[in-house]
Amino acid sequence: MNNSEILIIDDEVQIRKLLNITLQSNDFKVIEAASAGEGLIMAANHPPDLILLDLGLPDESGHSVLKKLREWYAKPIIILSVLSSEEDIVKALDNGANDYLIKPFRTGELLARIRSALRVTSHEDKGPLVDCNNLQIDLSARTVKKNNEIIKLTATEYTLLSLFAKNEGKVLTHHYLLQQVWGPGYIDQSQYLRVFIAQLRKKIEEDPNQPKFIITESGVGYRFVIDK
């Protein structure tokens, strides 16, 4: 039985109805808000396990709501929006959204993204080990193993991989990765990222040309996926 509670902040009645039916049929608890103001109050009074947030709200921009939530709310936020421009997607992810789905979306994909986001949250306090099939990342010992053999990584490669491991399932934008790994002066140096992603894939993937761990989100960034 799933006890996770999800807050839907969306002004479209039909979307809320669809989400409510889908989520409850998968054993999630659901609460709803039809406006930014109502959603912020509900989130503050009774913080849910995850928030589904629309960007096109009637009383305030969803981007603004996202920023306000991220001042105190640390759990997953997934954006559901008709806005499909790269600018809107990158802006939302850079402002702290865990994921972004464009309406109309497949319910199966939404449920998979929700499960992934909640899984990361539930595992946050269970130790610094990422163990998936033939790949083990021990953040405490700062070691990475493939097929039980230690992989030698440069300091930058390890920093990048550990950042992915700590944010499993979440889309990390080019801007975010460059700032976190190289610093604010490198946010336009996307070639740095491409080179190191290619190097990491050669070391941790079975087939670097068909990666299973580091997935490209075209025009946006990368997602680290652990298939458990």
How would you summarize what this structure contains?
By secondary structure, the chain is an alpha/beta fold. It is built from eight helices and twelve strands.
Notes on the structure:
It is a single chain. The protein is of the alpha/beta class. It folds into two domains: 5-123, Response regulator (Rossmann fold); 155-224, Arc Repressor Mutant, subunit A. It has eight helices and twelve strands. The chain has helices spanning 13-25, 36-45, 62-69, 86-94, 107-123, 155-166, 174-181, 190-204; strands at residues 5-9, 29-33, 50-53, 77-81, 99-102, 129-132, 135-138, 143-146, 149-150, 171-173, 214-217, 221-224. Strands 2-1-3-4-5 form a five-stranded parallel beta sheet, sandwiched between helices. A four-stranded antiparallel beta sheet has the order 6-7-8-9, with helices on one face. The longest helix is centred in the middle third of the chain and has 17 residues, at 107-123. It is globular and about 50 Å long. 29% of the residues are buried.
What descriptive keywords fit this protein?
single chain, 228 residues, alpha/beta, Rossmann fold, Arc Repressor Mutant, subunit A, 2 domains, five-stranded parallel β-sheet, 8 helices, 12 strands, 21% strand, globular
CATH structural architecture of the largest domain: 3-Layer(aba) Sandwich
**Percentage of residues in strands:** 15-25%
Overall pLDDT score: 89
Q: Kindly state the percentage of residues in helix.
A: 40-55%
